[in-house]
Amino acid sequence: MREIRTRPGLTEPVHGSQRIFKAVLEAVSRPGKLVKVFDLPPSPYAEAAPAGGKTPGRGLTGGMSRGLTALALALCDQDTPIWLDSACDDAETRHHLRFHCGSPLVKEPAGAVFAFVGDATRLPRLHEFSRGMPEYPDCSATLIIRAVLGGPAGERFEFNGPGARDAVCLIQGLPVWFRKSWQDNHAGYPLGVDALFVDDRGAVDPLPHFKILGLPRGVSFESARRPRSYNRENLQCMSR
Amino acid sequence: MLKPEASQAAAEAAGGLKGYNFAYLDERTKRIIRRAILKAVAVPGYQVPFGSREMPMPYGWGTGGIQVSAAIMGADDVFKVIDQGSDDTTNAVSIRQFFSKVAGVKTTTHTGEASIIQTRHRIPEQPLREGQVVVYQVPIPEPLRWLEPSEAETRTLHALDEYGIMHVKLYEDIAGHGEIATSYDYPVLVNGRYVMSPSPLPKFDNPKMDQCPALQLFGAGREKRIYAIPPYTSVKSLDFEDYPFHVQRWDKACEICGATDSYLDEIITDDSGTRLYVCSDTDYCAARLAAKDSI
Questions:
Q1: How far is A118 from A103, CA to CA, in rounded Å?
Q2: Could you confirm whether B212 is annotated as catalytic?
């Protein structure tokens, strides 16, 4: 068996978690807005991975990236079962999450509170994740998906819903069925999964950072849901 | 991971209280609250249960608001607390001092300067801006509670989007008083889905919640619920077509600053019933007065 060396977590566990959370909060409350975070923890993988070696693409383009790791360290603990997709599911990541978060790792997407998706093209169908119960819509999964955000290439998504104001974002790397599937997810509101997209390209910048994009279930890619007229509905209710 | 001494030094450098984590709560509790806040923002108006902690003050003094503030607060935040609009009441002063002690954050009384505004029963008169967070202290988060005592029942009513009893209550107001007599904690419909208690705000403040640029978070410590309204979200006060929602008006102006557009408090000044009307929002009143003096 390969020896796995424990890698460090956040440099500033208290203030770093707070800044990452605050960025996630900003992203969720302003869907469509790209939020920058400068608290990048080390990746779960040993730095000495040779370029073009056994583990190609890890750290920057595949696997549990530093951006995904940051969100895991800030949000997950023993109360939050985690599901890892095949790109993230390796011995190093499992060890890293068990050591720093203490989270149970689950095999089925349905059991996850947080799902980490390193390869968006192989994202499971959204209905495989927990969408909550009518009495407890908060008991639903949050998907944390790695993607390329804000261009230059990618599919154009128009965000409509609470907090989204003329918000348009390019997202690259999603499967073709995503838009339709998300609309179905949105149609089940207030049930449904919430998604966060993470773009790590900034990790190699002189000022290393990553970007977060929030996509809560209330957001539709079609033009804004018209608020129901409460009076009218009430009258219908009375006349029934 | 930092060594204990190093993290202690870091806490002190950030201005925290020795022997306590930054902003009082431990990290696990903060994570519980943070996750609840994220789900609350994802489903505006829905009350997310959370593991509320005992705080070093009694329930009813804002323990829910304090826990939400502690979970979102960073070292560079500027914190303002108001109680019924006032920055200088016991509750406001104590909570402000609490956070300046346990988190070392800068505090202010000016609405414009604050990044987090914790409030009991008022929204500041000065329009809020993007990037600000308003934290409401909530005693009873369930708007249907006075109509239906069972939590299982109210939860089902929310799940089924069945708010008939609330409309019957408002209708009974009209039948009994000729108008909707509810003047505070006036129920609102958030994002066209959930009926929500805006905490005991005067209904004067309800229109400020609609399409507000600031994020609004609600914490109920005793009842262990967190709910939220993201920025730019529809918040509609319930009413009827023939009895539309309206806010309180006064035929008086504030006797200190002369404002005619603010929420006025009535103060009885002697035994013969002499009354004085002044702005409830002390910061707004003081700012108007300062602007007048400088002319």
A1: 18
A2: no
